[in-house]
Amino acid sequence: MFQYFLNAGKSTHQASLILVNSFDDLEGPVLRHLNNKLSGKVLSVGPLLQSAGDTTVNTNIWKEEIQCLEWLDEQRVSSVVYVSFGSITVLSDEQLAEFAWGLEASNQPFLWVIRPDLVQGQSAVLPRDFIERSKDRGFFVTWAPQYKVLSHPSVGGFLTHSGWNSTVESICAGVPMICWPFFCEQQTNRRFVDHIWKIGFEMPEEVSRESVEALVRRLMNPDDEEVEMIRKNILELRDSATLACQVGGSSYNNMKNFFHQILQEASS
After folding, report:
1. Among 156, 176, 153, CA closest to 166
2. Distance between CA atoms of 100 and 66, rounded to whole angstroms?
3. DSSP character for 221?
4. Assigned domain for 62 exists
């Protein structure tokens, strides 16, 4: 994996242009640094989610269970914690149980994506007592229409593995995050969410039911001053993401510039 990323990094110097699924108001300093290193070839054209509108193509590995949206319709506004660790993250039995009991102890409604392969080497099996005790405020699916879930008025927080797609979707929906990264760029995304953008909290690497309960309770507490600021910050980024993709926005102009340069090269 390290060799793959090393080769990918080297190959960027051979590219005419490099498109990045980000936007200037989100990662301005990072994008400027990349352009200094790569002779101005980096163009932020995201969030692609916003650019695509209703024309997105479903590339999910698992079948979406849309009945969870009906369950969300029955919940109070901003009351539900959405829990998903993406399509690659795997947990141990112990980690699965700690997340489960932490969610149960938080007394918060939750929608949890439990993939069949979420637990390494076997099917994910939740503690029976946990299922019984949380049946009135928990909903489980093997996969969810994630952006529709995050955009639902009932969802007020996202417990995530901090993959870039999930992070950007949460920003576009204006939903603050609790971050528990697994590998690759996810640790970096977590740091930006907590320390740079201040739109969520990071969770300790060694998961415990106590930390899960405490962070969920805090993120969903409307009277917490820091959480109030976090929600303000992510709503501002949500609006910036929308503006970036509209006519005249930074990502719109960069994509227009990309097509212009491609057409110029094709005609020369």
Report:
1. 176
2. 22
3. -
4. no
Are 15 and 32 in a shared domain? yes
Residue 78 sits in the same domain as residue 177: yes
Q: In terms of domains, do 228 and 255 share one? A: no
Asked if residue 126 belongs to a domain, the reply is yes
Count of Cβ atoms closer than 10 Å to residue 66 Cβ? 12
Within this chain, do residues 23 and 131 fall inside the same structural domain, yes or no? Answer: no
- The three-class DSSP label of residue 122 is coil
Distances (CA, A) of 155 to 40, 72, 111, 112, 133: 39, 8, 9, 12, 21
**Domain span including residue 218:** 67-240
**pLDDT tens by residue, the chain, 268 residues:** 889 989 988 888 899 899 999 999 999 999 999 999 999 999 999 999 876 655 555 556 678 999 999 999 999 999 999 999 999 899 999 999 999 999 999 999 999 999 988 998 777 789 889 999 999 999 999 999 999 999 999 999 999 999 999 999 999 999 999 999 998 899 999 999 999 999 999 999 999 999 999 999 999 999 999 999 999 999 999 999 999 999 999 999 999 999 999 998 888 7
Distance in angstroms (rounded) separating the CA atoms of residues 40 and 17 = 9
Tell me, yes or no, whether 132 and 229 share the same domain.
Answer: yes
In a domain, 260, yes or no: yes
pTM above 0.85, yes or no: yes
Domain count, the chain: 2
Contact 172, 196 (CB under 8 A): no
C-alpha distances (whole Å) from 238 to each of 24, 91, 184 are 13, 31, 25
